[in-house]
């Protein structure tokens, strides 16, 4: 039986420091985890996350496909293939 990649991941493999969460657009809370909160990203709603990184630079996370992200008190966990991050 072939293995297929799940659109909705349960564990994100990459992270970026997040010192301040500024804005989240249409990111639906999926579940609370011990480490943070997991959000479901539905691309049809044009979601984005704006935050400051550990050195205070303002960044925007945009999404390429439906996925999940996990936000902890110190970082945002995501899968590299699902997002683009740019300075704003």
Termini separation (Å)?
44 Å
The major pleated sheet works out as: 5 strands, antiparallel
Q: What structural class is derived from the secondary structure elements? A: mainly beta
Strand order of the largest sheet: 1-8-7-4-3
What percentage of amino acids are in beta strands?
over 45%
What is the general shape?
A: globular
Tally of DSSP β-strands: 9
Mean pLDDT: 89
Roughly how much helix do the residues carry, as a percent range?
Answer: under 10%
**Number of helices in the DSSP assignment:** 0
Helix and strand pattern:
EEEEEEEEE
Rg, Cα atoms, Å: 13 Å
In short:
This protein is 0% helix and 52% strand.
Write the layout of secondary structure elements.
Blueprint (H helix, E strand, L loop, with lengths): L13 E4 L2 E6 L1 E6 L4 E5 L6 E5 L5 E6 L3 E5 L3 E4 L4 E5 L1
Antiparallel strand pairs: 1-8, 2-5, 3-4, 4-7, 5-6, 6-9, 7-8
